[in-house]
Specification:
Blueprint: H1 5-8, E1 11-20, H2 24-34, E2 38-45, E3 50-57, E4 60-67, H3 73-81, E5 84-92, H4 95-104, E6 115-116, E7 122-126, E8 136-140
Parallel strand pairs: 1-4, 5-8
Antiparallel strand pairs: 1-5, 2-3, 3-4, 6-7, 7-8
C-alpha cells in the first residue's frame, strides 16, 4: 500500500502493522508457535490504554494490541469490528515537522501533538477520513535508535 501523497514527503518506511486482539495471551500462540514469529517486547502504554506485544516477521514488526481498560479506543474497535488489522504505522524522522506538514496539507489529525508510544517512541494518529479509510500512526523512534 502506498502512502497518501501528503505522507510521501515525510515517511521513512512502514514501522509496523497493528492487529487488535481481545487477549494477547490467547493470540500470541498463533503468532509465535503457529507462525514462528519472534517476540520482541511486551509493554503497557497507559496513555493509549493498551497493552502491546511486538513480534518480528523477519525484519517486519507486527504489533498485537489489546485494550487495558473498557474505555480504551481498542475496546470500541473490537466491539464494532472484532479482531483484525487496526492501523498502519509509518516511521518518520521528525514527528512535529510531519504533523505540521500534514496539517498544512489539510489532513485531519487525531493527535496534533506527540503522544508517548510503546518502546520509547513518540506517536500521533492520522484520522482515517483523510487517508482513504485507513487509520494511520506516525512513529518517531527514540534518539539514537536505527530505522527499521
Amino acid at each position: 500500500m502506498k502512502a497518501p501523497q501528503a505522507l510521501q514527503e515525510i515517511v521513512i518506511g512502514l514501522d509496523h502493522v497493528a492487529i487488535a486482539v481481545r487477549s494477547i495471551a490467547k493470540s500470541r500462540g498463533l503468532y509465535e508457535a503457529g507462525l514462528g514469529l519472534t517476540p520482541a517486547g511486551e509493554e503497557h502504554v497507559p496513555g493509549q490504554k493498551v497493552n502491546v506485544l511486538m513480534v518480528m516477521a523477519g525484519s517486519q514488526r507486527i504489533e498485537l494490541v489489546e485494550p487495558s481498560s473498557a474505555d480504551s479506543p481498542i475496546s470500541g474497535f473490537l466491539e464494532k469490528r472484532g479482531e483484525g488489522i487496526h492501523h498502519l504505522a509509518w516511521q518518520v524522522a521528525d514527528l512535529e515537522r510531519s504533523l505540521a506538514h500534514l496539517k498544512d496539507q489539510g489532513v485531519q489529525l487525531i493527535h496534533e501533538t506527540a503522544q508517548d508510544g510503546a518502546h520509547g517512541t513518540r506517536v500521533a494518529f492520522v484520522h482515517p477520513r483523510s487517508t482513504g479509510g485507513v487509520l494511520m500512526e506516525l512513529v518517531e523512534l527514540p534518539a539514537g535508535e536505527a530505522a527499521h
